Amino acid sequence: MISKYINVPVFIASLIVGLLIIWFTMQNDLRKIYVYPTPENVDVLQYRDKAGNCFSYKQVDTACPKSESKLAKIPVQV
């Protein structure tokens, strides 16, 4: 029934070709893991920037200002 609508050898060959194209084009992206600093992992992780420099963050507790005019809104960076 399926062979009436789909040529099985052509389907399998095109599936293999498609998977190989995806494998070779996405190979570099498989190793990238994006980790963002949280209070739980700030002391454990080191980060690397685009220039290859390693750095880490230091958590500092600060008091919030009582006046809302002193608060700054920082937009999300993509």
Automatic annotation (TrEMBL):
<keyword id="KW-1133">Transmembrane helix</keyword>
<keyword id="KW-0812">Transmembrane</keyword>
<protein>
    <submittedName>
        <fullName>Uncharacterized protein</fullName>
    </submittedName>
</protein>
<keyword id="KW-0472">Membrane</keyword>
<feature type="transmembrane region" description="Helical">
    <location>
        <begin position="6"/>
        <end position="26"/>
    </location>
</feature>
